[in-house]
Amino acid sequence: MKETILVTGGTGFIGSHTTVELQNAGYNVVIVDNLSNSSVDVLDGIEKITGIRPAFEKVDLRDFDATEAVFQKYPGIKGIIHFAASKAVGESVEKPLLYYRNNLVSLINLLELMPKYDCKGIIFSSSCTVYGQPSAENLPVTENAPIQKALSPYGNTKQVNEEIIQDYIHSGAPIKSVILRYFNPIGAHPSAFIGELPNGVPMNLIPFVTQTAMGIRKELKIFGNDYNTPDGTCIRDYIYVVDLAKAHVKAMERVLEKETDAVEIFNIGTGTGLSTLEVIQGFEKATGVKLPWSYAPRREGDIEKVWGNVDKANNVLGWKAETPVEEVLASAWKWQQALRERGIM
Ligand code: UD1
Question: Residue ranges per domain, the chain?
Answer without folding.
Answer: 4-187+239-269, 205-235+272-314+323-339
